[in-house]
Automatic annotation (TrEMBL), chain A:
Compositionally biased spans, kind Low complexity: 16-27
InterPro entries: E2F-SERTA_domain_protein, SERTA_dom
GO cellular component: nucleus
Coiled coil residues, start to end: none
Annotated Pfam families: SERTA
Compositionally biased region (Acidic residues): 181-206
Protein name: SERTA domain-containing protein
From TrEMBL, chain B:
Keyword Repeat (UniProt): yes
Membrane-spanning intervals of the chain: none
Protein's recorded name: Serine/threonine-protein phosphatase 2A 55 kDa regulatory subunit B
GO molecular function: protein phosphatase regulator activity
Family: Belongs to the phosphatase 2A regulatory subunit B family.
Sorted UniProt keywords: Repeat, WD repeat
Gene assigned in the entry: ppp2r2d
GO cellular component: protein phosphatase type 2A complex
Subunit comment: PP2A consists of a common heterodimeric core enzyme, composed of a 36 kDa catalytic subunit (subunit C) and a 65 kDa constant regulatory subunit (PR65 or subunit A), that associates with a variety of regulatory subunits.
Annotated region (Disordered), positions in chain: 382-405
PROSITE patterns: PR55_1, PR55_2
Species this protein is from: Sphaeramia orbicularis (orbiculate cardinalfish)
Length: 305, 448
């Protein structure tokens, strides 16, 4: 989404930069404001990318930390609200919609699963840009400490690896390390293959959970993990097949408590699902997890909570 | 001149002991996840990620050197929790011990509650130092004696034996929490206790394992609307009807169990108004409270958020009475700390026995103490370098920009993998236990 090679000066405060008048007198205040605000936009966008990746990379084996997930989700919501207010949200989602290639738009469930699988294997999903971009951004860029121009701090030292710990035990975020990232992809590929088989068998039963055409407003940040259609005519046969599906299965539990059977989606796929526009969307991941949701419900009843 | 800080007088903290392997290669299972003194301070319990509990006992001071406090030595070690697999969700349930809480001692045995994410267990730790000998029907090997050979009766005699400490699970409180348990707290009635997970709080009776009362439930009907979770909970030390719970939005709710069966409506609501000038995308995350602790007096409570510790007067809801900055120099690093997930670290905090000082951990194996009376604070480090017996700990300082003085450490040299999340203060004496990854440090003051 951003031209590659753009050098970003990443100030770490995350605060709204106030034009302080520090830029030299040569720079007009308007230009300074524009420069600052575009850097702020870049920072905000990076933060959004990071947050979306964090939400997707749930630990496969152990149930992820709900508190952490909720805090990240709230951060995403906050960014989304602010971007909606200044109009950048709509611009971004339109750009994303336009950028999607039609080959992703497949209607039949099993084909969808297979296609997602293929897409993931093609390496489309965790957009390497976000990872690499962030890595580059945080490793190689230098941050200027607030109010102190002389001492520039190298941000790469902020997430240091203690000499005693090996890279395997490096505690940084999972997306920060190349090997971990590949591991995640491999795991997901395996899961996706299993899922595509599941998808095929369950699709015929018709008890797949798919989003119906009810529109989700922008406030509902956590719709589902959908792959959005820009504007295909809905297949009436398919609609009929899924018309009795109860969308209430798409609760936050699904989203936050692990996507182990979910195909890997790029952060912008998730972003698309957050937007309010667009017609019917067919889901892949949540459909494969619907049975787990049911079991979750049953378990809660048994536990009596 | 008082070089030391905590406690008000001239205290100087010095190294006493360190427990745990010196190996640079730390096994994940050995990472300490909770530390707790018992009510008398005689026992010190630790739990680790491998589900084990190790209890240390304070040995009496030697008569030769009464100015030195005795040492803590291993008293009992047992496997409290095992890893489990939730087959319905295809997820592992970690055996990591999240919290240990002691029960007040009522007889010769000691009782503690230990919990992982899903199950709480009541353990009885008892000593056996005598053995009965001289049974009539069986001999010393345990073989049955031939009844025809018994010509006289004798009374079995208790003979001393080597001390054996046994830990046995007396109660298992399971299947009451859908979400991960973050807190347990024994009530002042010594009969009940509460357990809190991300969305619910349950009240148990120590004798009853098949039932618990749900007293707080903040799960929304539609999980998509979930924006806030419970982060910690504690019973009031004296009023058995009062408890508090903190949230990920930086609020604390005090509830009275006499008011209603379901305490969804709080009696008091503590929240400090946000400072609009420091608002950022990370404001909410750093306001999330990671720990809440009542003072021993019951008049105050203390909360820990990412950058500070706050002391609240229970009678004043709109702001804390004291705020202490733990590591304000991290405020400009929040984005990096968000990236590497350190911003989600949950630090605990603790009071000293007289409520005059508080302690909490930081990064680089630093921990901080604040004296509430003198308002002085000190930063100390738990490291092998300063681990000579009775060596006084040197105060540490982080340089916040500009010139770095000698002996100061710059923010970027801090090791964020060395975090002190768990600390405990002896209930009566100035002895502290600090967990640094897989090592347990014990420090004490030089005086007395």
């Amino acid at each position: 989404m951003f031209p590659k090679g753009t050098k970003r000066k990443f100030s770490d405060s995350g605060e709204e930069p106030v034009p302080s008048g520090d830029p030299g007198p040569v720079v007009s205040s308007a230009a300074a404001a524009r420069t600052l605000s575009s850097s702020y936009s870049l920072q905000r966008q990076s933060l959004l990318d990071m947050s979306l990746i964090k939400l997707q990379l749930c630990h496969m084996l152990v149930e992820p930390n709900l508190c952490r997930s909720v805090l990240i989700a709230n951060t995403v919501r906050q960014i989304q609200e602010e971007m909606t207010q200044d109009g950048t949200w709509q611009i971004m989602t339109q750009a994303l919609a336009a950028a999607q290639c039609p080959a992703d738009r497949l209607v039949a469930t099993e084909v969808l699963c297979r296609q997602t699988d293929a897409a993931a294997q093609a390496g489309q999903s965790p957009k390497p840009f976000s990872v690499v971009g962030l890595e580059d951004g945080y490793r190689s860029e230098e941050a200027v400490m607030e109010g102190d121009v002389e001492s520039e701090v190298n941000m790469s030292t902020l997430s240091p690896v203690s000499p005693q710990l090996t890279s395997a035990s490096y505690l940084a975020g999972p997306f920060g390390m190349g090997p971990c990232w590949e591991e995640e992809e491999e795991e997901c590929d395996e899961d996706e293959e299993e899922d595509s088989e599941e998808c095929v068998s369950e699709g015929e039963d018709g008890d797949r959970d798919h989003l119906t055409a009810d529109s989700r407003t922008g406030e509902q940040v956590f719709g589902t993990f959908e792959i959005k259609h820009p504007a295909p005519p809905p297949d009436p046969a398919l609609e009929e097949l899924f018309s009795d599906v109860d969308p209430s299965y798409y609760d936050l539990d699904t989203v936050l408590t692990g996507m182990q059977s979910a195909p890997k989606m790029g952060p912008y796929d998730l972003l698309e699902s957050l937007s309010s526009h667009g017609p019917t969307a067919l889901s892949s991941s949540s459909s494969c997890r619907s049975d787990l949701n049911e079991l979750d419900h049953i378990m809660e009843i048994i536990v009596g909570s | 001149v008082s070089a030391g800080v905590a406690g008000g007088n001239d205290f100087q903290w010095c190294f006493s002991q360190v427990k745990g392997a010196i190996d640079e290669d730390v096994a994940e299972a050995d990472i300490i996840s909770t530390v707790e003194f018992n009510y008398s301070g005689e026992l010190l319990a630790t739990g680790d990620k491998g589900g084990r509990v190790v209890i240390f006992q304070h040995e009496q001071e030697s008569k030769n050197r009464p100015h030195l406090r005795g040492e803590y030595n291993v008293y009992s070690t047992f496997q409290s929790h095992e890893p489990e697999f939730d087959y319905l969700k295809s997820l592992e349930i970690e055996e990591k011990i999240n919290k240990i809480r002691w029960l007040p001692q009522q007889n010769a045995a000691h009782f503690l509650l230990s919990t992982n994410d899903k199950t709480i267990k009541l353990w009885k730790i008892s000593e056996r130092d005598k053995r009965a000998e001289g049974y009539n029907l069986k001999d010393e090997d345990g073989r049955l004696r031939d009844p025809f050979r018994i010509t006289s009766l004798r009374v079995p005699v208790l003979m001393p034996m080597d001390l054996m400490v046994e830990a046995s699970p007396r109660r298992i409180f399971a299947n009451a929490h859908t979400y991960h348990i973050n807190s347990i707290s024994v009530n002042s009635d010594h009969e009940t206790y509460l357990s809190a997970d991300d969305l619910r709080i349950n009240l148990w009776h120590l004798e009853i394992t098949d039932r618990s009362f749900n007293i707080v439930d903040i799960k929304p009907a539609n999980m998509e609307e979930l924006t806030e979770v419970i982060t910690a909970a504690e019973c009031h030390p004296h009023q058995c009807n009062v408890f508090v719970y903190s949230s990920s939005k930086g609020t604390i709710r005090l509830c009275d169990m006499r008011a209603a069966a379901l305490c969804d409506r709080h009696s008091k609501f503590f929240e400090e108004p946000e400072d609009p000038s420091s608002r950022s995308f990370f404001s909410e995350i750093i306001s999330s409270i990671s720990d809440v602790k009542f003072s021993h007096s019951g008049r105050y409570m203390m909360t820990r958020d990412y950058l500070s510790v706050k002391v609240w007067d229970l009678n004043m809801e709109n702001r804390p009475v004291e705020t202490y900055q733990v590591h304000e120099y991290l405020r400009s690093k929040l984005c990096s700390l968000y990236e590497n997930d350190c911003i989600f670290d949950k630090f605990e905090c603790c009071w000293n026995g007289s409520d005059s000082a508080i302690m909490t951990g930081s990064y680089n194996n630093f921990f901080r103490m604040f004296d509430r009376n003198t308002r002085r604070d000190i930063t100390l480090e738990a490291s092998r370098e300063s681990s000579k017996p009775r060596a006084t700990l040197k105060p540490r300082k982080v340089s916040t920009g500009g010139k770095r003085k000698k002996d100061e450490i710059s923010v970027d040299s801090l090791d964020f993998n060395k975090k002190i999340l768990h600390t405990a203060w002896h209930p009566k004496d100035n002895v502290i236990a600090v967990a640094a990854t897989n090592n347990l440090y014990i420090f004490q003051d030089k005086i007395n």
